Each structure stands twice: as structure tokens, then as C-alpha cells.
Amino acid sequence: MRKAIILLSGGLDSATTLYYAKSKGYKCFALIFDYGQRHKREISSAVVLAKKAMVPCQIIKIKLPWKGSSLLDKKLKVPVRKDLKGIPSTYVPARNTIFLSFALSYAEAIGATAIFIAANAVDFSGYPDCRPSFYKAFRKVVKEGTKKKKIKILTPLINKTKAQIIKLALKLKVPLELTWSCYKGGKKPCGVCDSCKLRQKGFAALGLIG
What we know:
The chain has a single domain, classed as HUPs (Rossmann fold, 3-Layer(aba) Sandwich), CATH 3.40.50. Helix content is 36%, strand content 11%. It has six helices and five strands, in the order βαβαβαβαβαα. Helix 4 (132-145) links the parallel strand 4 (114-116) and strand 5. Helix 1 (12-23) crosses helix 5. The protein is globular. The termini are far apart.
């Protein structure tokens, strides 16, 4: 069976990506990152999602002491924006480059042929490492910098709206109630951060409550 590494954050998109990879017949291995983010809520959601999907997971703990993001520095407020133009302070410098590098090493080590990441360039906060051009460039990194050379970087959600992602999740029977998308911790989502607004927009477009 083909093996795949899944970058699992605990959010709606990454959970959908995990179930999508499983539906394509991959034996999945989830990577969950504890990188000093504001809260551990998303990590616990990711672990629960992996267990629910019966997929082995590993939590990788790394430090980014230089911070540079309101998701890393609690002295900075998570922005509440009227529109989603520009790159917000929640952008973590080179985060997806770092995550993909770990996933690529893992894939080579266990003989996985694919890495799935839930990047989206439609309903998103404008992060530069979520654009198709970034993944096109990273595929060149795989080709030039690994022994295997043929490990695929797959972004099945890259061109989907949030509503389309939710529709796919429902089709795949993703346990959306176990996901956590809010940038803030706590018992309930804040409802006002970019991630919460995008999630709400997607459900509303389908006439649903998320």
C-alpha cells in the first residue's frame, strides 16, 4: 500500500485532507506540530482526529524563539479584520516551508510516496506559503534535494472555496465537530478571527451552521 504523510493541524481543512488521502487508498501517517503557538487546543483536536481516523500520529515539538507572529507572541493581539486583504500578523514566517521539510524527511525515511498539505489559496488569509506557486517551487526542492526525488507534494484543497471544502468533508464523513479552526484557545471559538470568519462563511454558503 502507498504511504503518505499528512500535515495535520486539527482544523477543518487538514482533517478533510486526511480523509481525502485515506479515500485515495493511502496508508496515512500524521504529523502534528507543537511550534509554540498561542494554545494547545488545535493540537489536542489533531490527536483526536488521528485516533478517530485510525491513523498513527507523531507530535513534533519545535521552537521559533524569534517569534514574528501573533500566533507565537502573546504580547501581540490576534487581529480582527473587516476584510481579508494583505498578510495579517497571524502569518508565521516560513511555517509551511518548515513543516514540509520535516514531512519530506519523514517521507524519505519510511518510503512514503506523497505528502498531503491542506493549503488553500481561495478562502484564506493571504499567507504567501499557501499559494500554488510556492508548492510548485517546493516540488523542485524535492527533486533537487532528496534521494527519492519522486515524492509528491499534494494540495487537494488549493483551489477550493471553503464551502466546497466543507461539502467534500461531509461527503467523506469527516467528523467536523472534532475540528478546531479558531486562532484563539478556549472552550469555544472566538467567532471574529480570520479563521473563524472563513469557517462561518463556508457553512453559511451551504445553509449550515458550523
